[in-house]
Design a protein that fits this description.
Oligomer: heterodimer
CATH class of the largest domain in chain B: Mainly Alpha
Structural class of chain B: mainly alpha
Shape of chain B: flat
CATH class of the largest domain in chain A: Alpha Beta
Largest sheet of chain A: 6 strands, mixed
CATH superfamily of the largest domain in chain B: MetI-like
Helix content of chain B: over 70%
CATH topology of the largest domain in chain B: MetI-like fold
Number of domains of chain B: 2
CATH architecture of the largest domain in chain A: 3-Layer(aba) Sandwich
CATH architecture of the largest domain in chain B: Orthogonal Bundle
Largest interface: A-B, 49 and 29 residues
Number of helices of chain B: 13
Strand order of the largest sheet of chain A: 6-7-8-3-9-10
Helix content of chain A: 25-40%
Chain lengths: 543, 320
Amino acid sequence: MAPQDRLTSTLTRPASTTTAPLLQVSGLSVAYGGRQVVSGVDLALGAGGSLALIGESGSGKSTIARALLRLLPASGRATGHVELAGREVLGLPERRFRPLRGRTLGFVPQDPASALNPVRTIGVQALEAAELVDGLAKEDRREAVLETFAQVGLTDPQRVFAAHPHELSGGMLQRVLIGLAVLPRPSLLVADEPTSALDVTIQKRILDLLSTLRADLGISLLLITHDLAIAAERAESLIVLKDGRIQEAGTTAEVFANPTSAYARQLHADVPALNPDRYADLRAVGEGRAGDPARIEVQGVTKTFGSLTAVDDVSFAVPAGTTHALVGESGSGKTTAIRLLLGLEQPDSGRIVVAGEELHGRSHASLRSVRRHLQLVYQNPFTSLDPTWKVERLVREPLDRYRIGDPASRRELVRETLRSVGLGEELVSRKPSALSGGQRQRVAIARALVLRPDVIVLDEPTSALDVSVQADIVETLLRLQADLGLTYVFVSHDLSLVRQLAHTVSVMRTGRVVEHGTVASIFDSPQEEYTRTLLASLPVGAA
Amino acid sequence: MSGYGGFALRRAGQAVVVVLLTYVFTFWVISVLPGDPVTTTLRNPQNGFTEEEIARIVSYYGLDRPVLVQLWESLSRFVTGDLGVSLRSNRSVADMIGEVLPSTLVLAAASLTIAVVLSFAIAFGVHYLPRPFSTALRSVPSLFLSVPGFLVGLLLIQVFSFGLGLFRAIDTDGPVATFFAALTLGIWVSAQIAEVLIANLDHEAAQEYAGVARSRGLGRLRMLLKHLLKPSSLPVVTVLALMIGEVLGGAVITEAVFGRTGIGNLVERSVASQDLPVLQAVVTLAAVVFVVVNLLADLVYPLLDPRVTLQARPEVGANA
């Protein structure tokens, strides 16, 4: 069943659309300067239909969106054909394209926090969208805006209207932006990663809102995403992109049941949500250690900042050689919890014991000796490595700090550690800028590993990476754990990833552990409402 | 709004301290400078004072007392608004400054107005005009900056006074002459404002929100006026406050070129004759102007930009 046929049965708006598709793109290529980033892309989207463009960073998916919206930076050149509602628009002068903006073609951007003018009120900017509604009298515009705000689920439209962007949360801002985009009733909505900057529960609500609006208003949706599971759940057809070229296209069901391209198959295998048991073998090694004595014990730890209790009576224990996951949304206290665990903050009360040694109330020097056994891999490999240092020096630094071995043995240890994380000899003299994101994170892991620590704290170690790179890193981490018996504390907002690699889980919310247990018990029979909400927010993938 | 009141009070207090410190510092610099203008003048044989008369005059002015006592008296007079008496003309310094101040204020105000209008016009042109014009306009600020002010002034006099006869070069305070003097100063100041403004507009135009606003169908003019102008102009407030100092400094040259009697002219004469009370007063006046203008800029900023918060809020881990 083609998307446009399915549409006639489900939509309230009469379908005027069985003929030409609303959006027909053929041979679209985009180049920045001399660099070709999109090559010969064809796609079609019927009125009321939904199409997802999927790809990793550098796949050209956002560039395609910007080319369609004609928002490419000055250096970008688009060639080919883009027909919108039967009209060629790519070659149209801006003056003639402008009437289509907003009215025919709406845009929901990626990062809601930067998508509204920070020094103007939301209301003033919303009125700009209301102006595009034909036949709406000036004095009725405000009313229309407030109605739209209510429609997109903003509880206090008056307050939102008067607010400046920095006074609202990311989820509220994304609702505002969706409201502004749908207010003039466009026929096509281009949503560029509309939820990737948001927490998982909010992500689900925003996607639900887009689905509802699409059905109620008969708007076609072009969804740009890196998340195969979201695309599968929210779009009727998919296009998989890599390096600016289409790898695979078809209805969602087809692509999922029977991916024909190697890349689509690999992508499918790398998405955690679709492969919860991918690393079952490696994980089983740690599973067998579950009864071992605890390597980390956190008992009744509380930390307050002024009036805010960031961590509230948190306790958990991690058996040696296993992975404990701290899961929560922004503001849940997981970051403070690991800062306490690393001895970067002092708790107000409670105790933390790592490898049998009390972490707090220690002198600087003895804290240093504990830290040797306690290493951190930071979230963003693009900022956590000194850009002026070579890989060799980055990995060797901890050895120099703790005066381990002589220069020759340090050099050998650095190379050995790099090999163990899958990095070759040839990279030692490179600087981080000459490495890919995945290679950088491997360097960061090697750097944590080189001291042979017992415990590694992994703070969202793959959230800045593409899904296929993430799969490689996760595999490396689990193999290292199986071989060396490392204990991991894994901090993440990504529940599907947690399910793939952790043994035990603590679910955190506003500083408290709301629920903890083994992965199986948390995922299969959650006891708390909040855990159930989190789990329900996961995109389930296959349609 | 109590946060704003407290902030304003704190900043005003700091401003007062800065002015007082400037006064003390100037006094100190003058007192340690070699050469004592009073005695040099009095002992000049041409003036024919006897030692007795000199001693009487010195004690009349309190110059025989310790420096700290003199500073204290001078400072307490200053606080009550008494700027002392000129050593050359024996007239009240306040009167002398009062005479020339209006002329300089008119010049400064006019040149700042011209600078603001000119710089916004240039920045607008850069962002609104089609390509060859906008590219050409981009280099205008550098051109303005690299031509010395006195040369511009001489050219303007040559063309508009001697050439076209629009004003008489000796009729210095007429409106037309004032306009050209202000233009001389304003061109130079406008270049610095325009550079900041153009860079800010470029930056804002590349922001995500600008693209999103364009996707709502806003035209170039509305984008510029409604979206880009305000965030781009905010830093200009700071630049403008700094420019006040430049304008006061630049007035010395401009006044000389156009033969105006203003503060610049007064400074020139007082330096030549080592008229210390006048210099002390002018330096303090400059400090007051500078401090007040920067205070105003600080006070205006939070009202213009809703994101500027005045109190450190309790640290909250990114609570969405």
